[in-house]
Structures are given as structure tokens and as C-alpha cells.
Amino acid sequence: MTKNNILADKSVDFAIRMAKCYKYLREEKQEFIMSKQMFRSGTSIGANIHEAIQAQSKSDFISKLSISLKEGSETSFWLVVLHKADIIDDAIYNSLKSDLDEILRILISTIKTSKNNE
């Protein structure tokens, strides 16, 4: 994990949860398409956050975090679809959505602060 970077740490934890949920959906629910989309966007959040940490400029940093925000929005979409299709239950949905919403709030705050400090 990264030193004193809550957003990066939370994104790693979330990516691990996405991997476990993807495995569950494939093995237990035999759901292969939407679960893969959710997995890709859900793990991309953290990948872009970690890229942002090594950004070459403030605009690069903001750009990478903005991509993470978009990936988070897509992940939210897939979670809603999987939940409304009764593929994931309330407990899984609420837990993952809560973690995702927290990451998105931190991302939005970080992007706003970075833009204000340009």
C-alpha cells in the first residue's frame, strides 16, 4: 500500500473486493459479461489513482483522477444493473456501493481542490 494515501489504499481494497465479487459472480451465479465489465471498471479506478500519484504535472494528475471518477461512475452503473437484475443481493450491493461512494466523494474533493490550486 502507499504511505499515507487514503484514496490509494481504499482503491486497492476496493479492487480486491471487485476481484472477489467477479470470482463469485462467475463461479456461483454463472454471470460472465456484466461481471467482467464491473470488474474492469472497478479495478481501473485504483489503477488510474495510482497513475495519478506519479503524474508528470498537475493537469496530468487531474486528468488521471478524472478518469478514475468516470470509471467509478461506470462501476456504479454495473452494480445497479446487477442488483436490479437480482444477480447480486442487497447486502453485496449496499456494501460495494458504500465503499465506491466513499472513494468517489474523495475523488471529487481531491479534483476540486487540485483545480482550485492550479
Descriptive overview:
The structure is a single chain. With 118 residues, this protein is mainly alpha-helical. The chain has one domain: 23S rRNA-intervening sequence (de novo design (two linked rop proteins), Up-down Bundle), CATH 1.20.1440.60. Helices cover 82% and strands 0% of the residues. The chain has four helices and no strands. Helix 1 runs antiparallel to helix 4 and helix 2 (33-53) runs antiparallel to helix 3.
Write a compact overview of the structure shown.
This protein has 118 residues and is mostly helical.
Protein traits:
118 residues, single chain, 4 helices, 0% strand, de novo design (two linked rop proteins), elongated, mainly alpha
Tell me the helix content.
over 70%
CATH topology: de novo design (two linked rop proteins)
Structural shape: elongated
What is the N-to-C order of secondary-structure elements (H for helix, E for strand)? HHHH
Taken together, the total number of domains comes to: 1
CATH-scheme architecture: Up-down Bundle
- Give the overall pLDDT as a whole number: 96
What does the largest sheet look like? none
CATH superfamily: 23S rRNA-intervening sequence
DSSP summary: helix tally? 4
Sheet-strand content, in percent, reads under 5%
First-to-last CA distance: 28 Å
> What is the CATH class?
Mainly Alpha
Number of distinct beta strands: 0
Taking all Cα atoms into account, the compactness measure Rg is 15 Å
Structural class of the secondary elements? mainly alpha
Instruction: Report the uncertain regions.
Output: none
